[in-house]
Design a protein that fits this description.
Layout: H1 2-5, H2 9-13, E1 16-20, H3 28-42, H4 50-64, E2 73-77, H5 83-107
Length: 108
């Protein structure tokens, strides 16, 4: 989605677009590299407890400056007039995800 649209569903809700240093959409290869780097360095491969450690370390690095997956990346953020839309969109997205999880659990 980042390569084709410049955003993902969650980023769109918050008005964020991920672009290259020239302000263009990422190539498919650059988007895959960025996504893998987020998965590895930011989410710790989703391994329980290690993921919390990686998120904590990423938070610290974010406060200091640029994260590993942000090298050569720029972001475009919409103005804050859309805050209500962001909040409503986020709540609806979480509700849909929760509902889908419940549906899957009931079918098992």
């Amino acid at each position: 989605m980042i390569a084709k649209l410049g955003t993902t569903i969650g980023k769109r809700i918050f008005g964020i677009r991920v672009l290259d240093a020239d302000g263009e959409k990422l190539t498919l290869e650059a988007a895959k590299k960025r996504t893998y780097s987020v998965f590895k360095h930011g989410m710790g491969y989703c391994i329980p407890l290690y993921d919390l450690y990686r998120q904590y370390k990423s938070y610290g690095k974010c406060k200091e400056g640029e994260l590993v997956w942000d090298a050569g990346i720029s972001y475009e953020v919409e103005d804050n007039k859309v805050v209500l839309r962001m909040i409503i969109g986020y709540v609806l997205l979480r509700a849909v995800a929760y509902g889908a999880n419940m549906l899957v659990a009931m079918c098992l």
